[in-house]
Amino acid sequence: MTTYSAPSTLTPILTRGWGEDRSWTLESYRSRGGYEGLARANTMTAAEIIDVVKAAGLRGRGGAGFPTGLKWSFLPPDDGLPRYLVVNSDESEPGACKDVPLLMANPHALVEGVIIGSRALNCHHAFVYLRGEVPHAYRRLLSAIKEAEDAGLLGGLRITAHAGAGAYICGEETALLDSLEGHRGHPRLKPPFPAAEGLYARPTAVNNVETISQVPEIFRESAEWYASMGTEKSKGHGIFSLSGHVAHPGQFEAPFGITMREILDMAGGIRPGHHLKFWTPGGSSSPIFTEAELDVPLDYESVVGAGSMLGTRSLQVFDETTSVVRVVTRWVEFYQHESCGKCTPCREGTYWLKQILLRLERGQGLPGDVDLLEEIAGNIAGRSFCALGDAAATPVRSGIAKFRDEFEAGLTTPARELFPYEASANYQRGGVR
Ligand SMILES: Cc1cc2nc3c(=O)[nH]c(=O)nc-3n(C[C@H](O)[C@H](O)[C@H](O)COP(=O)(O)O)c2cc1C
Ligand code: SF4
């Protein structure tokens, strides 16, 4: 049985004020120091702004952790023609749930970050591409942009908020650009990278909502302040989204390097009467962890060293009532549904994986099915056009690696007999279990 101790310090910076009345308004944001960072950035040249972001060590929060200042410096010198900052707000990965609450509670942090980022890139028209299934976040962003414009804060910058139709693949930066241009969202061949040829074939920086929302505070405080948090290579802090079988799920903003044990401790541990079975450090596309990895520092390098990926810090928690086969099947159904169909390994392979997983879940697996799953997943990973294919293969491979017996049991026994749905449901008619 897991014991939880050693509470750590949270760093409510982006999440500061989320509980305040109408925290999303300009007035509330200003009361928390909002737009002071912009005032400081306005005294700097574009190159100086990029240097500050580099010195802070800010890394992209969309999953890969690419250094933001470096990405901005990849744009070629200004030739007087358009160049763009595009914010990726397509958040769709199972388990990922930080960008939407951030937009709901603190949209001005993004607007201020967009203004500073646009100054750094000499960009006069920025875009925010939002997942279309969250109209409430879209409306809140529109109202924040309007407030900032009315207050004269945009300084000539135009910000367009664009609602997509709700496709996971449109979170992949080049598919996003295709979609923004009005085409079907298909990933583009790279190179050329967006920095050289992005939106409308012009130099473009694509950044995650949380990445850009981090920028104002770096200018309000300092690069040194930001870099003093986190670990040697994963500087700063981030929002860790805890969901699933925990007593108190939610957003925990903490320095990189915090452990899952500490976060679970602050969340009151696993729901009463149960114990941890497995968890994801970075959502459904990251190899699963178990109790053995509770003390791995949650920074990019340590999580990779332990065999997974930090991704979007989507900490999904599953207790002993959960069927691994069922969870992996739901995830693969998601990837199969979201596959854009451009390349064969992902388009066909995710469909094959789904068919096999569904029969294993029903207890009607065929001899050799588990090996077949591994073989198909092995032929998708590394052979697909974009990372969605790899993401689909990952839970299959890591689920089998850690819980092979449960997949083998699917040859004879339905998952619902081994793990009744009711036991793992967090909610039932009438309230929380
Ligand atoms: C299938 C797929 C979906 C993605 N979805 C998102 C997303 O919803 N939001 C996001 O910021 N990045 C997403 N990414 C990563 C983006 O391609 C890109 O790396 C990111 O927006 C860069 O921003 P950053 O440097 O600030 O992290 C996705 C990547 C893939 C392959
Ligand atoms: S890996 Fe999947 S989502 Fe990516 S291009 Fe191929 S078919 Fe489309």
UniProtKB/TrEMBL annotation:
Domain annotation NADH-ubiquinone oxidoreductase 51kDa subunit iron-sulphur binding: ranges: 325-370
Keywords, comma-separated and alphabetical: 4Fe-4S, Iron, Iron-sulfur, Metal-binding
PROSITE patterns according to UniProt: COMPLEX1_51K_1, COMPLEX1_51K_2
Keyword 4Fe-4S assigned: yes
Record-stated family: Belongs to the complex I 51 kDa subunit family.
Annotated protein name in UniProt: NADH-quinone oxidoreductase subunit NuoF
Organism whose genome encodes this protein: Schaalia naturae
Record lineage: Bacteria, Bacillati, Actinomycetota, Actinomycetes, Actinomycetales
